[in-house]
């Protein structure tokens, strides 16, 4: 069953604000974080459609680190506060599965070596811990 978006342009504006507040500087960044195509993210943030597959909403929620149910409720909302307030309220929802983000600063040396090592460690963890989903985001 499709998820209906009552006010597509407003929903897209909220997602754009949430994207920036979450540190995704481009639509491509959100696409990578959510596992969606850039085209799918563009459709959402521009309000191009008024229905989405539940899996699209779930992936988008994962990329924003919010519960999918919060995005479904936002899509169906008749109340339309300004997009910034709605995005802040959305991001105040507890992250599903206790999700967490880390920032690592590399002050000296080759950052690409550190990035490659972290990617290898995360891949190993994902392979050995069922259900773990970890990703590296490029600096913004």
Largest β sheet strand count, sense and barrel closure: 2 strands, antiparallel
Task: Give the total of beta strands.
Answer: 2
The CATH superfamily of the largest domain turns out to be: lambda repressor-like DNA-binding domains
If helices are DSSP runs of H or I spanning 4 or more residues, what is the number of helices?
Answer: 7
What is the CATH architecture assignment of the largest domain? Orthogonal Bundle
Q: How much strand content do the residues show?
A: under 5%
Enumerate the strands of the largest sheet in spatial order, edge to edge or round the barrel: 1-2
The number of domains is: 2
Query: What class do helices, strands and sheet pairing give?
Result: mainly alpha
The CATH topology of the largest domain is given as: 434 Repressor (Amino-terminal Domain)
**Uncertain runs:** none
Nearest-integer average pLDDT:
87
Summarize the amount of helix as a percent range.
Answer: 55-70%
Radius of gyration: 16 Å
User: What is the element string, with H for helices and E for strands?
Assistant: EHHHEHHHH
Global shape: elongated
CATH class of the largest domain: Mainly Alpha
End-to-end separation:
36 Å
What is this structure's SSE topology?
Blueprint: E1 3-4, H1 8-21, H2 27-34, H3 38-45, E2 51-52, H4 54-64, H5 68-76, H6 83-91, H7 111-128
Antiparallel strand pairs: 1-2
Describe the structure.
The chain has a two-stranded antiparallel sheet with strand order 1-2. The chain is elongated and about 50 Å long. Helix content is 55%, strand content 3%. The protein folds into two domains: 3-96, 434 Repressor (Amino-terminal Domain) (Orthogonal Bundle), CATH 1.10.260; 102-140, no CATH class. The protein has helices at 8-21, 27-34, 38-45, 54-64, 68-76, 83-91, 111-128, and strands at 3-4, 51-52. By secondary structure, it is mostly helical. The N and C termini lie far apart (36 Å).
């Amino acid at each position: 069953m499709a998820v209906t978006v009552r006010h597509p342009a407003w929903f897209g504006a909220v997602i754009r604000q949430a994207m920036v507040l979450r540190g995704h500087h481009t639509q491509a960044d959100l696409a990578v974080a959510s596992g969606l195509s850039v085209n799918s993210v563009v459709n959402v943030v521009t309000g191009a459609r008024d229905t989405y597959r539940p899996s699209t909403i779930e992936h988008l929620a994962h990329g924003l680190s919010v519960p999918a149910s919060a995005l479904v409720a936002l899509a169906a909302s008749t109340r339309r506060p300004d997009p910034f307030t709605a995005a802040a309220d959305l991001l105040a929802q507890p992250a599903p599965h206790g999700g967490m983000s880390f920032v690592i600063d590399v002050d000296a040396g080759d950052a690409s070596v550190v990035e490659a090592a972290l990617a290898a460690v995360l891949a190993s963890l994902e392979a050995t811990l069922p259900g773990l989903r970890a990703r590296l985001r490029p600096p913004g």
